[in-house]
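Dear colleagues,

As part of the handover before I leave the project, I'm documenting each prediction I ran so the next person doesn't have to rerun anything. This entry is a single chain, and its sequence is reproduced below.
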Amino acid sequence: MMPIRMETQCSGCHSLHFDEHDPTSGVPHGDLQRMYRALREHFSRQYLEAARLRARTAECAGPDRKRARCLSMSSGGHAIGRIRSH
């Protein structure tokens, strides 16, 4: 008798996808350490991206000079250099 394999017998009904907002998310099957690492990396990345967005939003809500800096961040590094020189 052949062993049961996740890829061939189970994956049609049982997905390893875990984040409905990220269609690329999935955990490796059969290796707990790799699974924990994949989950930790995914949610750490999500947290850090959200924190970066919150920081940029707070910066954009500040005084006009900060607002100009925020806008320049989206248009490239050369614009940031000009704002810092003023």
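Residues 28-85 form one domain. The mean pLDDT is 76.

All the best with the project,
I.
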